[in-house]
Amino acid sequence: MTVESTAARKPRRSAGTKSTAGKTTTARKTTSTDPELVQLLTPEGKRVKNAEYDKYVAGITPDELRGLYRDMVLTRRFDAEATSLQRQGELGLWASLLGQEAAQIGSGRATREDDYVFPTYREHGVAWCRGVDPTNLLGMFRGVNNGGWDPNSNNFQLYTIVIGSQTLHATGYAMGIAKDGADSAVIAYFGDGASSQGDVAESFTFSAVYNAPVVFFCQNNQWAISEPTEKQTRVPLYQRAQGYGFPGVRVDGNDVLACLAVTKWALERARAGEGPTLVEAYTYRMGAHTTSDDPTKYRADEEREAWEAKDPILRVRRYLEASNHADEGFFAELETESEALGKRVREAVRAMPDPDHFAIFENVYADGHALVDEERAQFAAYQASFADVEGA
Amino acid sequence: MAEKMALAKAINESLRRALDSDPKVLIMGEDVGKLGGVFRVTDGLQKDFGESRVIDTPLAESGIVGTAIGLALRGYRPVVEIQFDGFVFPAYDQIVTQLAKMHARSLGKVKLPVVVRIPYGGGIGAVEHHSESPEALFAHVAGLKIVSPSNASDAYWMMQQAIQSDDPVIFFEPKRRYWDKGEVNTEAIPGPLHKARVVREGTDLTLAAYGPMVKLCQEVAAAAAEEGRSLEVLDLRSVSPLDFDSIQASVEKTRRLVVVHEAPVFFGSGAEIAARITERCFYHLEAPVLRVGGYHAPYPPARLEEEYLPGLDRVLDAVDRALAY
Ligand SMILES: Cc1ncc(C[n+]2csc(CCOP(=O)(O)OP(=O)(O)O)c2C)c(N)n1
C-alpha cells in the first residue's frame, strides 16, 4: 500500500465533517442527546432507529441480547468482587470498569476470534469477551506477576500500564496482518487521557499512512485520574481522526447495542482494506480511577448521579423486560450465576500462591544471559545460607 | 522555624515557598492541581497560586518536558512532575536530547532551569512501572544534575536549591519515604546541593547510599553496632555530580566501602563509585568495593520485591564479606 493511494482514498464516512471545530473557543461537553452520538438504545430502554448502523445488529436474536446482558452483569459482578478484594487487602490495587460495561462488552463482542485486542489496564469486560478467565486478570493486581496470561491463546494482549504505548503495537500488528494478506482486524483500547500521548498520535499517523486494519477504541470516561477531558482536547475526540485522514465516530458508550454495531462496522471496514477508524465511546467512570484514587478531591457527586441514570446495564434490562425477551427466571438464574462467579473469584484469589523467589530471574531473556545466571546462583547461595542457619 | 513534617509535606512547603518568592516559578504535571498529585505533594498549591502557576497538563510526558523547555527559554522556572518513575520514558527523548544539551549547544547562552521531579523506587507494593530507580540512565547523560534527598530537611532545602539552579535538575523523590517525618528548619542556611553528608560516624566500613536506602543503611549500622562493628553511613544526596571527595575521605578512614542502591547493580551508580574509589583509594582499601542493589531483571511483581530490593540482611551480608577480606 503506497502513501499516495491511502491519501487519495476518501473515507467512506467522515463523521468528522459534521465538525464543530469552528466554535471551539470554549471546551464543550457533549450529552447523550447530542446528535453526533450514535445511540440505538435509550437510557429508558427504548430501541431507536439508526439508518447507518441498524444493519449491524439487525439479525440479533433475543438469546444474543440476553447474552450481552449476561456479559455485562457478570463483568460488573467480577469487578465489584475485585474491588472488595482490594479493600480486604487481597489485591494491591484495582482499576474498576464500573460504568464502562457496555463499551467493553459491545466492542468486545464485535470482535472475531482471529482478531487481536490490545487493551490498557481496565479492559476486564473485553477480556471476558475474549474468553480470558477473569481470575487470570488478578495476578498483576495482587502482585504475583506482571501479566498473567498468554496473549496468544485468546488474541488478547497483556494489560499495558504505560499510557498509550499499546496503540502503536496494535498498529504494527495490523500492518503485519495487511502484509500477510489476512482478513482479521485489530482493536486498540485507550482512554481520553491517553489521546494526548505522542504514541497515540503516532499510531494514528502510521495506521493512516499504511492503511492498517486497526480500530482505535477510545473509552472517553470523562476523566484521566483528576483531569477532565477538557484538559486533553478542545474538540470532541472522535474528530481527531479527520486530521489523519480516517473516519471517527462517537458512540453512546453506555449503549451496548450501539457499541456493538459501530465496532462491527469499523472492524468490517478494516477487514475490507479500508484502513483505520477511531471510535469514541462516550461513557463514564462511575468509580474511582483506581482503588488508590480519591475522586471526592476533584469531582462532584451530582455528576456521577446524572450518569447513573444512564446505567448501561439497566437500560438493557428495561428493554429485555419491555420486549418480553427475558422473564423473571432468567434474571434470577443470572443472579445465582453472578454470586457463583464472585465466590469463584474470591476463592481463586485467596488460593493464589506467592511466586517462587527464583521467578525474578525467569524469562529475563529468551536466549539466556550469563549475568542473570550468575546473579541467580548468587541468590541461591544467599537463600541457602538462611536454610543453614535455620537448620542449625 | 524548625518544624516536624513528612518528606512529602516538606517538598510541598518548599514548592510553596518557591512559588511565593519567584513569580517565574511554575508547577506542571498530571493531576498536580485539584488532586494535588497522586502523592499529594502539590496539595493546595493550585488553590493558592491559581491555574496559571500550578498547571494540570495533558497526559503527555514528552509534552510536559518539551513545553517546560520552551517556558524556560522564555524566562520561567518550571518544576515538572512525572507521576511515577516508569512514566518518564516518553519524556526521555526531550530530557536527553534537548534539556541536557541546549546549554552546551548555545555556547552557554541558553540556561534551562527546569526541575524534573520523579517519585522513584520501590517498597510500596505497587504494580509494574511504579517502583523503578532509573537514576543511572540519567546520570550517564552530561548536562543533567541528579539529586535525591533522604529526609524531610534535605527534601525542603534541596528543592529550593534545585529550583534556583540554572541547570536542569532531575529530582528523584524516594516515594517510600514520603510519609517519614523529620525536623525541617526553614530558616537554616543549607549546605551545598551536591555535597554528601556523614549521617553516622564509624571506623570499620563505609556504607554509601542516597534517597530511600539511607534509612536502611542507618538501620544496618545500628544492627552492626550490636555486633560490635562501627559503620560509617554516608548520604550521598547527589548522584550527579557525585561527591567523591567525601567518599574518599570516609574510605581513607574506614578502608572499606559498600554502596547500596535500589537500582540494578549492573552499570548502576555503584559501579561508577566503585571504579573511581578504587582509583582514588587503591592503597587504602582493605577489600574490594562491594555493591548491593537490584538484579539484572525487570522490577518484579510486588510479592517479590522484598527479595529484589536490598534489605537489612543483604546489606549486612555484604558488610560481612567486606570485613572478611
Ligand atoms: C505514560 C504514563 N503517564 C502517566 C501514567 C499514570 N496514569 C495512569 S492512568 C492515568 C490516567 C489515564 O486516563 P485515561 O487515558 O483517560 O484512561 P482511564 O484510566 O480513565 O480509563 C495516568 C495519568 C501512566 N500510567 N503512564
TrEMBL record, chain A:
Keyword terms, alphabetized: Oxidoreductase, Pyruvate, Thiamine pyrophosphate
Database matches in InterPro entries: Alpha-ketoacid_DH_E1_comp, DH_E1, PdhA/BkdA, THDP-binding
Oxidoreductase found in the keyword field: yes
Domain of life, per lineage: Bacteria
KW Oxidoreductase (keyword) present: yes
Record-annotated Dehydrogenase E1 component domain positions: 70-351
Named cofactor requirement(s): thiamine diphosphate
Low complexity biased stretches: 16-33
Positions of region (Disordered): 1-37
Protein name: Pyruvate dehydrogenase (Acetyl-transferring) E1 component subunit alpha
Gene that this polypeptide is encoded by: pdhA_3
